[in-house]
Specification:
By secondary structure, this protein is α/β, with parallel strands linked by helices. Helices cover 22% and strands 23% of the residues. The chain is globular and about 65 Å long. It starts with a strand and ends with a strand.
Length: 253
């Protein structure tokens, strides 16, 4: 059995996040001084004069940083006529199951991944989607995470392709890009050209039919098989949260 890490780093990388986290590290010696002051003791009271190293992380948008899962409440307040579920309300069983990787590395920058694209990828590997399969979209854009292209040029899922997968019984999907939809600039350009439905069509399908998706996956190309493996990505338990960070892993026997 081999495990493949499919997550990106939490780091201060402005290429990867419009609002990047600020990560400040404090080593054991620095923390000895800080903690000693709080506890009214001397830094030398710690063994070897060293306390516990920590880091402080601050961000404008916490739960949507790094590899994370968007919950239905992120898409809108109502899903299928009922209050949308939050990240802590989603069953853990949905985050461990059969993984399927669809290769979309041929897609043009800023383009939409269509139903036909999805069906062709499945046909090419002679695979039929089963209910509760976890479908992962491989664009290869994780390789651009330290360049301006990462936020600007990624392809993204269309609403129609997302809905088609939901109709096959898929509840959890994922993609190796910043957002599940096309990049912000591409959507905004279409809206300004008169297409009012261009904003977040893949996200907003979640108002009509419940599903969840993981954004900012990585290393899908490292997984040696396109199906027949286990995908695991349990979200952190943010009470009432719109999203939760995950450590995504492919498990190959």
């Amino acid at each position: 059995m081999k495990l493949y890490d499919l997550s990106v780093y939490w780091e201060s990388n402005s290429f990867a996040e419009p609002w990047p986290p600020k990560v400040e590290f404090s080593n054991s010696a620095e923390e000895a001084v800080k903690l000693a002051d709080k506890l009214d003791i001397h830094p030398s009271d710690f063994q070897d004069g060293l306390a516990l190293a920590v880091e402080n992380v601050s961000a404008q948008v916490f739960t949507h940083i790094g590899t994370h899962c968007d919950a239905p409440i992120h898409f809108g307040p109502v899903t299928e006529g009922k209050p949308s579920r939050t990240i802590d309300e989603l069953p853990l069983e949905e985050f461990y199951g059969n993984g399927v990787i669809l290769d979309m590395r041929h897609k043009e920058p800023r383009s939409g991944i269509t139903v036909e694209d999805v069906q062709k990828a499945l046909a090419d590997m002679d695979y039929i989607i089963k209910p509760r399969d976890i479908v992962l979209i491989m664009t290869g854009f994780d390789k651009h995470i330290y360049t301006e292209s990462y936020l600007r040029d990624q392809p993204g899922m269309t609403g129609e392709a997302t809905e088609w997968l939901i109709d096959q019984g898929v509840k959890l999907m994922g993609i190796d890009t910043y957002t599940f939809d096309r990049p912000f600039g591409a959507m905004v350009a279409d809206v300004k050209a008169g297409n009012k439905s261009a904003l977040f069509p893949a996200h907003f399908i979640g108002r009509k039919k419940e599903y969840y998706h993981i954004e900012k996956l990585a290393n899908l190309d490292k997984v040696p098989v396109k199906h027949g493996f286990i995908f695991s990505a349990f979200p952190i338990k943010v009470k009432g949260g719109t999203a939760g960070s995950v450590r995504a892993v492919a498990i190959v026997e």
